[in-house]
Amino acid sequence: MKKEQKDAIFANPLDKVATFSFDDKVVQVFPDMIKRSVPGYSNMIGMTGVIARRYWQPGTRIYDLGCSLGASMLSVLHQIQEPGLEIVGLDNSDAMIERCREVLSQEVPEAQRDGVHLECADICEAPIDNASVVILNFTFQFLPLEQRLPLLKRIHEGLAPGGVIVLSEKVRFESAEQQDTLFDLHLDFKRANGYSELEISQKRAALENFLQAESFDIHHQRFRDAGFAQSSVWFQYLNFASLLAIKAR
Predict the structure, then answer these.
(1) What share of the chain is helix, strand, coil (3-state, %, to 5)?
(2) Is 217 labelled as part of a ligand binding site?
(3) What is the rounded average pLDDT for all residues in the chain?
């Protein structure tokens, strides 16, 4: 297993801060970056597998859309060790998929590997068929707004009755005071994890207009518009949260 590298991508002054990209530089430091940037990340990933175990239906697939380095897939595979499990990981970054293959080959027991499939693909175009669990952990927030409802509708159509979506995101708040408070506390979280003011500022510039967070109300309404019977917030830590949406049986 490769040694985890420290995230120092924005540690030095940049003449021009480019739009954030999940390229090879990010892939190399991604585990460190996400742990130091996303409050509650390990809790959400760990519980993703637990949720998948509850809602997975034998004979159906689990999809991880925007699988990055496979953390959610590993959580699922740890929780579900039954024969016939099929889990499909999709990501549009070649660098992510290449590294994910390495991680899974080292971490997944040989007996489980036949059911694991990885593909570099656009999640807005890839088919979702015969699914009971679809995972969108920190993926949806990077999609253009106009692509979000069509994707949820496609997922809903591809889910078996009683199937679920786990969707983890950075969120915004309707109250300006609440938004400012939790935004500032998130900055404190990053400082406490060793990021400098320069790193925080430059990464924020790189993510501007690329990461578009939305409120809980918007997420719940979009789930209803896509046809889901119910949706709930099951986890929140500062301005990061995870939701569970369930298709009617």
Answers:
(1) 45, 20, 35
(2) no
(3) 95
Q: Is 12 annotated as a binding residue?
A: no
User: What is the rounded distance in angstroms from the CA atom of residue 203 to the CA atom of residue 78?
Assistant: 33
Widest Cα–Cα separation across the chain: 55
Nearest to 128 by CA among 44, 226, 217, 30: 226
Question: Is 68 annotated as belonging to a binding site?
Answer: yes
Residue written as tokens 């990461």? 211
pTM of the model: 0.94
| Cα separation, 50 vs 123, whole angstroms | 24
**The tokens 């309404």 sit on which residue?**
221
Dump pLDDT digits (tens) for 124-168: 999 999 999 999 999 999 999 999 999 999 999 999 999 999 999
Token representation of residue 229? 């019977």
Domains of the chain as residue ranges with CATH: 41-168+220-246 (3.40.50.150)
